Each structure stands twice: as C-alpha cells, then as structure tokens.
Amino acid sequence: MSGVDDKEKIINRAAKHNIPPSDNCPTCSAEIDGLGRALPPPQPDGFRNPALTVDAACTRESESGTEVLLITRGRSPFKGQLGLPGGFVDYGEDPQIAVLRELQEETGVGGIVTGLFDVRGDPTRDPRKHNVTIVYWVEADDSEPIAGDDAANAAWYNLDDVISGNCGVTSFDHLDVLIKIKESL
Asked: What is the C-alpha to C-alpha distance for residues 102 and 109, in angstroms, rounded to an integer?
C-alpha cells in the first residue's frame, strides 16, 4: 500500500466524521490526516503504523460493590477527566511489562497481568494520533493508590457510579471499556 492510498483512506474516514482534509501541519510541516494530526513518516516498507498503548483494568469488590482503579488525567488530552491507568509502550518493551510499568508510575500500585481484556483501535479515539490500545486485566496489589507521572489523582471508584457519570467525565473511549468491564463481571 502506498502513502497515497493511506492518505486516501484517512481522508475517507475523516469525511465520515465531517472533518475536512488538510495537507501539512502549520507547526512542523509534516503531512497531516483529516483529523488535523501529524502523520508519522512512512516506514521503510512504505507503511504508516499506529502507535501502541496499554491500559490496566483493575477491579475489586468492596461493601459498596465493584470498584475500578482510575486516574484523573493531569495532562492533555482530556486533562481533568477519569481514565484507566495506562500509556504508550516503549520501543523494545513487551506490552504486558508496559501495562505494569504504567500502572506503577501513575498509581503507585503493583499488579499481575491475569489476561487480555480488549483491544481498541478506532482511529478517532485519541486526538493526538491513531493509537491502538491493549486493555489487560490486572490484579492489583493492596497498595494505596498515589498519583504519579502524568496522573493528577489515583483512586478506587465505584464502577456503577463512574458509568452513570456521578464521578465525572471519562477520557478517550474508557466509558465504553468500563461498560464492557461491568458486562463481563
């Protein structure tokens, strides 16, 4: 597939969302997609690949019901909104190691990956660029959550309260993930 074919597909996807196509970023002059995001340069094989992220789905039972470990984002995008602990996989890093690293960095909580929960890749889920995320089930240890890295807060929340909107707005497509978590329990 050539870069022209890739650009055409992105423009068509953007058109579905009524986003006009553009040619170049006014800041860095990189080619941009129809959502206004700078495209990564093509790899030697001619492909542009999305970035890989991970998210930790940690739940526990309490007297008030099922709780989920969430952070309040301290940076854009979605600053101030709730989200699953997670982030970008570093080059050369195994995603299962990355999810535990991100969990520790953002919440101070350790854990064990117990399984794969979901993979999400809608090109519009992150305003920065096309990211594919792997959501892992993680059994969290008993540490008290303490915000770190780019998290402004970290805490256990009642899952039903988060889904109903009583705890604030969720970031990215995490509300859909949380609903799917509730359905799977």
From this structure: 10
Reported as half-sphere exposure (CB side, CA atoms, 13 A), residue 63 has a value of 0
pLDDT-flagged residues of the chain (< 50):
1-4, 6-7, 19-20
Nearest Cα residue to 10 out of 52, 53, 51, 48: 48
CB atoms inside a 10 Å sphere around CB 95: 16
> Would you give the DSSP letter of residue 36?
S
- 83 touches 152 (CB < 8 A): no
CB 127 within 8 A of CB 37: yes
Output DSSP code: residue 144.
P
Q: Say which residues have a Cβ less than 8 Å from residue 90's Cβ, sequence separation at least 6.
A: 98
